[in-house]
Amino acid sequence: MTDNNHLVKRAKEIRNLVLDMIFGAKSSHLGCALSIVDILTGLYFGDILNVDPKNPDWENRDRFILSKGHACVALYATLALRGYFPVEKLTEYGTDGTLIGDHNTRGALPGIETTNGSLGHGLPLGIGMALAAKKTRRSSRVFVLVGDGELQEGSNWEALMFAGFHKLDNLVLIIDNNNLETLGPTNQILSLSTLHKKLESFGWDAENISGHIFADIIGQLNISHEKPFALNCHTTKGKGVPFMHNDHIWHGKCPTQEEYKRAKMELNGEAQ
Amino acid sequence: MRFEVIKTIYKAALADPKVVFLTGDLGHAHLDDFRKNLPDQYYNVGIAEQNMIGIAAGLALSGHRVFAYSIAPFVTLRCLEQIKVDVCYQNVGVVIIGVAAGYAYSTCGCTHHAIEDIAAMKALPNMKVYSPANSLEARLITEYLIRAPHPAYLRIGKGGEPKAEKEYSLEIGKGLVVKPGKDIVIFATGTIVNEAVVASSILEQHGVSAEVINIHTIKPLDKELIEDRARTKDAVFVLEEHNILGGLGESMARIICESDGSKKPIFRCLGVPDEYNHRAGSHQYMLGCYGLNGESVARQILELYQKT
Description:
Chain A contains nine helices and seven strands. The mean pLDDT of chain A is about 95. By secondary structure, chain A is of the alpha/beta class. Chain B has two domains: about 1-155, 3-Layer(aba) Sandwich (Rossmann fold); about 175-305, Rossmann fold. The radius of gyration of chain B is 19 Å and the shape is globular. With about 300 residues, chain B is α/β, with parallel strands linked by helices. In chain B, helix 7 links the parallel strand 5 and strand 6. At the A-B interface, helix 4 and helix 5 of A face helix 3 and helix 5 of B.
């Protein structure tokens, strides 16, 4: 893991920004955002996404779609640190009139490819982009990040069927599988059950990994496939702040001043 | 009408690889040329409208001009949120083609009737709504949509509608006078314009001169023309194959109510009442259930107009 020290450091920077932004704006979805930070770090700082922050509309870029738009604060922080725009821009979050809201909106910031919020939209959009890349003989790949609860939306299964049938080998679905949705554990509300088998039976390659181990995230995303590829990342909601781990209350709750201070200390490894 | 639309898009697609046609497993033999000759620009996405609209938006975000085709209620209401978020909110060039407006699938039951689609589509910011009266207008509007991609709903019949008697042009966003008349005016949209013309001819025999105006662009609406006729005619009637709630008539009523000037004409919407029709029959039968065929329209107008 020592080789990944720079990624560990980046992920911690992103988590600090996420915590500061959500606390500062008295916003929510903290647990959801912390859950995906290591995946985003792997994508943007682990040489997975072929992008150019100085030329965000470069035609041959890889596309990243954050379908679970409620975790967008993690994407905002990641894009800022990746150099798409100054980190200071993030202070607009939570202010009146800002374009940087609680769900990612296309055009609000450089690097945001799509508008999301309502769940189950990202994968069909990603298929359109993957088809477009193939039609124009571009080598770019399309990555779509969804939540596990989001997979309860039927539109995903229409899309999974289509992508598998058409063998869209330039499409990657990343599942932030923290087994928690708004009101509790996914496997107790509407279980995805044998997700791996479902994905394979829909014509996808699928792998299960921890969504917090950079070597696995990057290793898997570097493998090319002849089918669309689903990377089922088992994650911890609230990752990085132990007292928030795996507690669905942090889907919608904003930390109090005390909780914020404690979270900062836990995140940065300081003794209480 | 649908054949004309598909043929027009196919011709454009032959010349421009960025034109893409998606279908939700409908279109039958009309799509043979696309399927055979342009397989990279044609996808039958299956019976999955939500996915179809998302794919359409993803392609459009990548620079393609996309047409998404299915039966009107399926391609508007089944995937309404995808149209809102993926197409309209992101403001991308996707044309939603809804076949069989109103009661065109008259024997198929309420699942296949489209009497709520205009209301749903016109309420979406960035969306424009087109409702041609015949194949010629369908072609002209489609040609425009190919030239000027934007979120659009093209509401068409299912085929077999009366053809235009001669070639003419139209201006997008402007109403078209189909038949002149000095006393009253009937605004109509879509294939039911033909019934308005029939009504006007009957009215003429009763000494009422009724102008017929075809509103092929429901959004944006021709405010100037509507205000002018509200000022200059004794009565304004709106004929549409749609729920009277949320249709063309309501949009026109707002324009007239908000317009300057003290004179307000008699104003009536002749459309589908706010209910589902559980009966099946011919298209004409279905129109007749709600007094929307030419003869019934003329009778209702005479009753209302002569009362005043």
